[in-house]
Amino acid sequence: MARIQAVLAAALLAASAAGLAQAGVVKIDIGGALNDPSLFLPDGQWLQGRDWNWNQSGTSLQDGEAIAHENWTGMSPVDLNVGVLTDGLDPDVKITKMLQNNTANAWTSFDIQLLRFPGFGALTVSAASAISDRFSSVSVTNFGSGDALLHFELAGAEPAVAVGQSVMFQFTFSIPGDVAFRMVQTPVPTPGAFGLLGLAGLTLARRRRSASR
Question: How far is residue 122's CA from residue 71's CA, in Å, rounded to a whole number?
Fold first, then answer.
């Protein structure tokens, strides 16, 4: 992880020093999570145009948008590295994430943490921009450290994201020039799934105790 952070930071600083001519966001890179058992990428790596893509907004060159497609096969958190290159301005960046739930559990909530790397400016997420097509209850917390937390959960009688279904998350954040940060994503299973996991643990413990007698 330390090596990935160092390489990403060096690339961002080098591009900034070169004085790129385009306005606002120049490039968005998403990496990491290649060996995470929760995330399955058929090609074994992040490929632009397949797993994610980036484009400058058609409405304003100050805006950039990244779209990531993720196939989830496990429930452990997924940790991505994100780098945003700018021409020195302070643009807004929009990220849209399309997640396929191929785990063994339905999801009732989802957390996305944005944790900036040391040496870069603070991230500020627009609360009004944070939306989901499955979770209508959304809260955004911007911390004084420059980090942010987005929490998505069900409201009322909304159904959970069942196995085999997909969910979309979208949010916009402002940045002070180039940034590099971690995006830590954590799905939360239905309450019944916790009960099943607990029951399985108790059964295993009883078997071990019986075998040791």
Answer: 29
Which sign, positive or negative, has the C-alpha torsion 59, 182, 52, 16? positive
**Cα dist from 128 to 62, 109, 119, whole Å:** 19, 19, 28
Query: Rounded to an integer, what distance in angstroms lies between the CA atom of residue 139 and that of residue 152?
Result: 7
Distance CA 189, CA 109 (A): 7
Which tokens in the block code for residue 43? 């090609």
Q: Which amino acid is at 23?
A: A
Return the pLDDT at 46: 82
Longest CA span, the chain: 74
Checking DSSP bridges between strand 63-72 and strand 92-101, what pairing results, if any? parallel
Q: Which among 138, 181, 145, 152 is positioned nearest to 4, based on CA atoms?
A: 181
Selection from 172, 168, 102, 97 nearest residue 142 by Cα: 172
- What is the value of pTM for the model shown? 0.78
Mean pLDDT of the chain: 81
Domain boundaries, the chain: 2-212
